[in-house]
Design goal:
By secondary structure, the chain is an alpha/beta fold. About 25% of the residues lie in helices and about 20% in strands.
């Protein structure tokens, strides 16, 4: 357990360094994604490295079984993101034993030429989101900890972020105050640091020192509405752990709605019990979007809604206000995700779907260490919306880019209905009398039963992802079982221009 904790700590530091490095590249004047991540010709790749020094910071227990492969992405106008793209050959060569205890120099016997994968011709598309204002209510400490994830989706979009920040909620019961206010100097220093990293953020105090958490959340509507500009069309309430995987896709989704009409856009909880209890409302962690027209009405009824509502949840207070003063109903967007499911969420991440948003990723999971989305998302700098895209290699291996490599030794992938999501999570609470028996048919369904990890599915989870010179390295890891050695799979993703010489072509079936 101590070794695993140490690995997690080191990986987080490496990930943060990579994310900040990318952020500084982003801020180069007039630099597009292809300017700062230029295409990399296949003929310049090192087919079989003679050192593996980059594995040392991961504190692995040696020897390990190791295999690697370079992947060259080829943006192609005709390529589409499918539920799964099938390729006939293996992804990795045979494992070989590696021991870096004495030296990082290795003599790899099993190496393969780079694999060329066709991807849609939209790598790291720029998104113009200047018409959106985002709002978060949180503590200074949690906001500081959210910088790595914010750096993955907010910079260079033109979108503003307003944050209502406090120090903490730990106040004596006899106190008339609801929270400890943040120090103004600390707020200013954090705001300056975030802006230097390219985050267009403004940090403010709560509107009232007597505001509860739900009141502070609801007051984001007033803060954002009062700071709107002529081109503002949407205000969005999010949590400090809301993560948008593709800002261009988010902007495209909102383009389906007329901002001068009243629109309440968001997502129901994936858990039907929560929907049955709290109603047909937008759950805040998935992201809630109010059109300018609706935001104006909510703002005009602000005092009434603050005084009239007695809920402890901010998203419920917002829903109540909209219900009391308009006939506007929620436009439920299935690709926005609250993530009210618990324990192993592999089924969601391995579904092949591209979520617009994910939430509750900082904690949980089977090991309690959460899902490092800011690290998983680095590969998007190489291949755009390829994050969480699935490729099948041969009969028994599935790569879910940025999350896992899964091997199915008992019958292979053909035994799975890959159009259905695997129910890896704990079963939600049952709603008596509901036909939604598994509790998720309305959200992530259709689903299929969970696969036995001890026998039918060998899962290598992403352990580390780092930015290299014009590339991204991923390390996938599977702990030893039955006194065998830990196993490590390495992928290095690089670009290929359309005119470059390729060493291998993709073959889809």
């Amino acid at each position: 357990m101590l070794i695993r904790s140490a690995i997690t700590a080191v990986v987080c530091l490496l990930s943060l360094s990579s994310v900040i490095w990318v952020a500084r590249l982003y801020r180069r004047d007039n630099a597009s994604s292809t300017d700062w991540f230029p295409f990399f010709p296949a003929k310049h790749l090192e087919r079989c490295p003679d050192t593996l020094d980059w594995l040392l910071p991961l504190n692995l227990s040696y020897p390990v079984r190791y295999a690697r492969r370079d992947i060259i992405v080829k943006p192609t106008a005709t390529a589409k993101r499918l539920s799964v793209t099938k390729l006939p050959g293996p992804l990795f060569p045979d494992f070989q034993s590696v021991n870096l205890t004495a030296s990082t120099t290795v003599d790899l016997k099993h190496c393969e030429d780079p694999l060329v994968l066709d991807v849609p011709d939209n790598p790291r598309r720029a998104a113009d989101a200047a018409h959106i204002i985002f709002g978060i209510s949180t503590t200074l400490e949690r906001l500081d900890g959210s910088i790595p994830s914010l750096l993955r989706w907010l910079p260079n979009t033109g979108a503003q972020l307003f944050v209502i920040a406090i120090k903490d909620d730990d106040v004596p019961e006899e106190s008339k105050d609801r929270f400890h206010p943040a120090d103004g100097k600390d707020m200013s220093e954090l705001q300056s640091r975030m802006r230097e990293l390219g985050l267009n953020v403004t940090i403010v105090h709560p509107l009232s020192k007597q505001d509860s958490f739900s009141q502070r959340y609801f007051s984001l509507v007033r803060v954002m509405y009062d700071n709107q500009q002529a081109h503002t069309q949407w205000i969005s309430l999010i949590d400090d752990d809301t993560f948008f995987l593709s800002m261009p896709a988010l902007v495209e989704m909102l383009a389906d709605f007329e901002p001068h009409e009243q629109h309440y856009v968001g997502a129901l909880s994936e858990d039907w019990w929560s929907v049955a209890r709290y109603g047909m409302m937008g759950f805040g962690g998935a992201g809630i979007f109010l059109s300018r027209a609706l935001a104006g009405i909510v703002n005009s009824k602000y005092d009434d809604c603050q005084d009239r509502s007695h809920t402890s949840a901010g998203d419920i207070r917002l829903h109540e206000c909209i219900s009391w003063h308009t006939r506007t109903k929620l436009s439920n967007i299935l690709d926005l995700h609250q993530i009210d499911l618990h324990n192993d969420l592999s089924g969601i991440y391995e579904s092949g779907r591209l979520p617009l948003s994910l939430h509750h990723w900082k904690a949980g999971g089977p090991d309690g260490n959460g899902y490092p989305l800011h690290m998983m998302h680095l590969v998007a700098d190489i291949c755009g919306d390829c994050i969480l895209q699935r490729w099948q290699f041969g009969k028994d291996m599935l790569l879910t880019n940025g999350f896992s490599v899964a091997v199915y030794p008992m019958g292979g992938v053909k035994t799975l209905d890959l159009d259905k999501m695997e129910e890896t999570w704990d079963h939600p609470s049952v709603v008596d009398g509901s036909v939604n028996v598994n509790g998720v048919d309305h959200s992530v369904g259709p689903t299929r039963p969970k696969v036995d990890l001890a026998r039918d599915k060998l899962q290598y989870r992403l352990l580390s992802s780092t930015v290299l010179d014009r590339a991204v390295r991923q390390i996938y890891f599977r702990a030893a079982t039955d006194e065998k050695h830990d196993e490590v799979l390495e992928l290095v993703w690089k670009n290929l221009p359309p005119h470059a010489e390729m060493t291998q072509n993709q073959s889809s079936v």
